[in-house]
Amino acid sequence: MTALELGKDLLGLESLTAQQIVLILDTAEPFKEVSERAIKKVPTLRGKTIVNLFFEVSTRTRISFEFAEKRLSADTVNVSSQGSAVQKGENLVDTARNLEAMRIDMVVIRHPSSGAAKFLADRIDSNVINAGDGKHEHPTQALLDLLTIRDKRGRIEGLRVCICGDILHSRVARSNIWGLLKLGAEVAVCGPRSLMPLGIEQLGVRVISRIEEAIEWADVLNILRLQLERMTGGFIPSLREYNRVFGVTVKRLEQARHDLLILHPGPINRGVEIDSAVADGSHSVILDQVTNGIAVRMAVLYLLSGGRRETAEAAMGLNV
Amino acid sequence: MTSSGSMDTIMDAHAFARALERMAGEIGALADPADLVLVGIQRRGVELADRLASLISKSGTEIPRGALDITLYRDDLETIGPKPFVGETNIPCNLDSKSVVIVDDVLYTGRTVRAALNELADFGRPSKVSLCVLIDRGGRELPIQADIVGERISVGKNDRVDVLVRELDGKDGVELVAEGEG
Predict the structure, then answer these.
(1) In degrees rounded to 5, what are phi and psi of residue B177?
(2) Left if phi > 0, otherwise alpha if psi is -120 to 50, otherwise beta: which for A220?
């Protein structure tokens, strides 16, 4: 595999090189324009069948993938764990093999278990794209974060990015850390001790314990959603207390650099990890992230699609 | 690109400039300049469209120009795989009722033009679409012909025609690179 190919699957950013990440971001640029057209569709993936296999609830990611697939003219099928044979106890590989027997080309999978995407990719011939596996990785979210930062600041290298909140449960944090470090950013994490994985420093990130300090230090804040569904283990005393200590508020932002960027992967808990006025304020690029998500996913689908691996290289010196 | 094989000059900078002058005149005569839109195919077609538009604009009317990258409309994704670099597509105005001139450097199989026609249709319904190329090298695989041609040449299947433009290659010209047997 050369540096300019992604291979069969996109499972995470840990296994990609900086060049491959930049390739995806560069490829995403022209796809933005497709979504601005009156007819938002190109015929690139005509005849390809893509299954969106979602074993966990999702609005943004699933819809974003579906738009990306449709704007590339692929045929799509959505399978969710509710209302499918998964409820009858069918295991992951059997589900996927049955889908493959229907002659599909790609699977986009979201699953509550870390490693589920790789497990599947090793066992089926179709391209597999990880749309979030447990606490492991969510590569397309990190890619759209990187694209948004690069759009707004013109670079990633040398920027100081602080990821704030529930790092322990966050696949978004992990994918972002890998991607940012590979592209030369300085990365910090900030959040309650109880939500900070042990040994996180070993990844090469700085740990900041106070949000005020993070705001002063950073060029970019990526504020994670407090995963309320995972807060039953007594990680934090109360939502109100979390907001009082770690919430990104208008008052705290008075200490920020004027060009600080604020990202959030959504869905937002307004008044918990971020104040409404901040989420809708001038630092926020949260909706740009959503727009960029479609372009990044189109780029990934395009780069993984078609072409036998051995002949893909020939495409580079093409003279048609 | 490859460095093997011999190289012949088909057009020097002088002949290149003369060809563009003549082509600009022919484009100007195609339609009312107020209705003209020049659309170049990435990458060298875009540079040529810019040059042609400037030449036509000398006579008064400013001609809108756009860029088309046909990568996403190719018919060979299945066989050769995704081309890693997708260029910019930028259509400057609504194309309804316009007279659109597609500009490319070399016309060969016609597949690029086929893709460009499909892509243009997604941007509107021009009253007329014409094709203008600097070099027609023959070898068509589709029923497509150019309306305006800088020069027609006949070259072998294994030869390559390189159009050079100042902005990208440092000089203007057209070269024939013989790849030998292969």
Answers:
(1) -110, 115
(2) beta
- Mention every residue, 6+ apart, whose C-beta is less than 8 A from residue A16: A6, A139, A178, A182
> Cα distance from B20 to chain A (closest Cα, Å)?
22
- How far apart are the two ends of chain B, measured CA to CA in Å? 16
Q: Is residue B116 a contact partner of residue B77, using CB atoms and an 8 Å limit? A: no
Which position has the token pair 């077609």?
B45
Per-residue pLDDT at A265: 96
What is the least distance, in Å, from the CA of B60 to any CA of chain A? 31
The nearest alpha carbon in chain A to B85 belongs to A27
The CB-side HSE value for A269 (13 A sphere, CA atoms) comes to 18
Break chain B into its structural domains and give their ranges: 14-158
Joined together, the tokens standing for residue B41 give: 């195919």
Q: Find the helix packing angle between A286-304 and A18-34, rounded to 10°.
A: 110
- Under a CB-based contact definition with an 8 Å cutoff, are residues A261 and A219 in contact? yes
pLDDT tens-digit map of A71-113: 999 999 999 877 777 767 778 888 888 988 999 999 999 999 9
Relative to beta strand B128-136, strand A160-164 is unpaired
Query: Which residue numbers of A are catalytic?
Result: 60-61, 88, 110, 138
Chain B residues in contact with A31 (beta carbon < 8 A): 86
**pLDDT, mean of residues A245-258:** 92
Cα separation, B57 vs B53, in Å, equals 6
Phi, psi of B105 (to 5 degrees): -80, -55
All residues of chain B having their beta carbon less than 8 Å from the beta carbon of residue A311 are 79-81
What confidence tens digit (pLDDT) does each residue in A4-50 have?
A: 578 899 999 999 999 999 999 999 999 999 999 989 999 999 999 99
Closest partner residue to A27 (CB to CB) among B1, B86, B109 is: B86
Identify the CATH class of B14-158. Answer: alpha beta
* DSSP per-residue letters across B108-160: SSSHHHHHHHHHHHTT---SEEEEEEEEE----SSS---SEEEEE----TTEE
Residue B90 forms contact with A (CB below 8 Å) = yes
